[in-house]
């Protein structure tokens, strides 16, 4: 076996073979199972795309209908999960509530049967169906309200917005939200997906797989960046303040949230689509005052660090879209998780098909043969 050099963050080191998605970071190309993201965003729905990712091919009409029906039937959460969530502190972050609730699902379905396709299918459906309900329930309960039951006539995206806002969403907003889910659902072996695959490789249950991925997604260098983008735009406050704000931060070597990517060295194709979705929403419901600031941030960043390949990533414009839909800032990352769960489950299934437990090596740089110092001599 050849010993490889150590690369912090495993940069450039393949950790899996996968046929789920493909990224060309120089050309700004993203494909799910070979299909360009732009085409899926225009023509597909989130559940159809999830099916494509998890089962490898676009579904027939009957297959899609069956999948949609199964999801719809499983949307309600157990009252014991709801009661457990009710006891969570209102001030807790919704990502922590989601992680705990996803893990708690495993308590109810502890019979693990990883070789059985029906077990895989039932787990996929149950997790995808209940995650949006759990997020909406936590949001309502932490603000002193009762959770809203899912509504039958609404699709996946529309139903989530309904459960969150207690009213049926505008059709354009629901379609745009569905496209946002398509854009966020999969992105090769990013940190949370890697985490999902590592957990999956131990042959634990899918609830533990998803819970560990949710925990990883929450960090500000990963899915949590969308929340921080809005905080940054608020802090900047005016278009005139953009340049001095960025110059100050860049000089201090501080990161600008929503910019930069390990793989993309051009503007993230998802950011381009999200920006156009934001504009569609603004044209119908009125412009967000932070959009002008965001555009100026993008312009000044291109000037200052564009040559280093630092451009807007998926998180830069998603927050503005979610804000316009009335989604609270600290739900942006849980919304990301609603989408990404399909990607995690696709990787779970792929990992199981050719499993070997992850067990990398390390370079020990500590001491050896150190004598034990008695308490009195330390
Ligand atoms: N703002 C300013 N400078 C940046 C940024 C940024 N957002 N991102 C990278 N750089 C600079 C670094 O300072 C470094 O410069 P140097 O070589 O002069 O020291 C260089 O670019 C490389 O940066 P790294 O942090 O080593 O890049 P890495 O690939 O490890 O990190 C990451 C990628 C985490 C996405 C980084 O760009 C970042 O922290 N961005 C801000 C957080 C963010 O938006 N995360 C969401 C990513 S998308 C997602 O996960 C869904």
Descriptive notes:
This protein is mostly helical. It has 16 helices and 3 strands. Helix 5 (94-108) packs antiparallel against helix 10, helix 8 runs antiparallel to helix 15 and helix 9 packs across helix 16. The longest helix has 26 residues, at 117-142. The structure holds acetyl coenzyme *A. Residues 9, 190, 221-223, 225, 253, 255-262, 305, 308, 310, 313-315 line the site of acetyl coenzyme *A (ACO). The site of acetyl coenzyme *A has 21 residues, from helix 15.
Q: What can be said about the biggest beta sheet? A: 3 strands, antiparallel
**Beta strands, count:** 3
**Residues in β-strands, percent:** under 5%
* Molecular shape: globular
Mean pLDDT: 96
Helical content band: 55-70%
SS-based class: mainly alpha
Question: Which radius of gyration do the C-alpha atoms yield?
Answer: 22 Å
Uncertain regions spanning at least 5 consecutive residues: none
Ligands (ions, cofactors included):
acetyl coenzyme *A
């Amino acid at each position: 076996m050849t010993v490889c050099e150590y690369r912090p963050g495993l940069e450039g080191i393949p950790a899996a073979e996968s046929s789920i998605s493909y990224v060309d970071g120089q050309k700004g190309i993203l494909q799910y199972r070979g299909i360009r993201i732009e085409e899926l965003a225009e023509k597909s729905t989130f559940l159809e795309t999830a099916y494509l990712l998890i089962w490898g091919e676009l579904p027939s009409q009957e297959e899609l209908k069956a999948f949609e029906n199964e999801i719809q039937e499983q949307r309600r959460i157990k009252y014991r999960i709801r009661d457990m969530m009710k006891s969570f502190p209102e001030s807790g972050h919704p990502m922590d509530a989601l992680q705990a609730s996803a893990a708690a699902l495993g308590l109810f379905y502890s019979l693990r049967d990883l070789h059985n396709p029906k077990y895989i299918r039932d787990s996929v459906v149950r997790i995808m169906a209940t995650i949006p309900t759990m997020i909406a329930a936590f949001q309502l309960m932490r603000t002193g309200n009762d959770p809203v039951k899912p509504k039958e006539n609404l699709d996946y995206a529309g139903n989530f917005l309904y459960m969150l806002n207690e009213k049926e969403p505008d059709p354009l907003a629901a379609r745009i939200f569905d496209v946002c889910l398509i854009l966020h659902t999969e992105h090769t072996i990013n940190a949370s997906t890697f985490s999902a695959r590592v957990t999956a490789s131990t042959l634990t249950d899918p609830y533990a797989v998803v819970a560990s991925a949710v925990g990883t997604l929450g960090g500000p260098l990963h899915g949590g960046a969308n929340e921080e983008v809005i905080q940054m735009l608020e802090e900047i406050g005016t278009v005139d303040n953009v340049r001095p704000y960025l110059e100050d931060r860049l000089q201090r070597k501080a990161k600008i949230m929503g910019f930069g990517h390990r793989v993309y060295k051009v503007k993230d194709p998802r950011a381009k689509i999200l920006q156009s979705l934001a504009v569609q929403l603004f044209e119908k419901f009125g412009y967000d005052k932070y959009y002008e600031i965001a555009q100026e941030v993008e312009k000044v960043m291109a000037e200052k660090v564009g040559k280093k390949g630092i451009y807007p990533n998926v998180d830069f414009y998603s927050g503005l879209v979610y804000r316009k839909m009335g989604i609270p800032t600290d739900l942006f990352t849980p919304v990301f998780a609603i989408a990404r769960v399909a990607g995690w489950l696709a990787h779970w299934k792929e990992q199981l098909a050719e499993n070997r437990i992850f067990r990398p090596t390390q370079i020990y740089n500590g001491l050896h043969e150190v004598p034990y110092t008695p308490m009195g001599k330390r």
